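Q&A log
Question type: sequence-to-structure
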Amino acid sequence: MYLFWRNTGKGLLAFLSGLALMTVLYLLTGLILGSIPVNSSYAQTTEGIEIFVTDNGVHTDLVLPVKTDIIDWRDKLYLQDYAGADSSFTHVGFGWGDRRFYMETPEWRDLTLTTALTSLFWPTRTAMHVEYIAKPLRQNKYQQPVLLSQEQYQALVQYILDSFQQQPNGEFQLIEGRGYHSRDNFYEANGKFHLFKTCNGWVNGGLKAMGHRAALWAPFSFSVMRQLRD
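Response status: OK
Response body:
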């Protein structure tokens, strides 16, 4: 019995040591690759379509105008599915991420160890979180504006459209009754969430898709925002 517990203890210690090493390597890799820019020669247009990238300290979103010459999002995100929004709302926010995490963690205090570990260490289903926003955002530490040309905006719109699962008629697949409040909803999304493809990586991918300066790899929100501020 003594040998059993001794070997078990050694095995547990080895596992924890390995996990700690992996965590340190992940953090270091994220910090290094998050500081390396791609599209570094990008020069922002002086006029065009303004979008925002927002950061809550952990998670980033893309915030776009509800209507432009390129797309009216209300043709895809029906206002009747948003009891608290109406035609006066000016912007719509998009965030891609782990479906279970979104569904079960409306606030950080709701996060469980099982949900956190599953979303990080196992490829999981994804969802798109969409929120109608009543008025334009203002620039601050957590809300960074970006001006895009028509071509850049078209590329970003296509990137977002491709992230939604769509029915044969082109409609998005609404996950009914799972929004946090009356102005947001969740939709089935394409792709799998895992340690190397996170919500911030999705936003960073949107920046890359339209040719904007972005991080080589951005698992953390500050990696995304850093490239916008530099």
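Response note: The longest helix spans residues 2-34.
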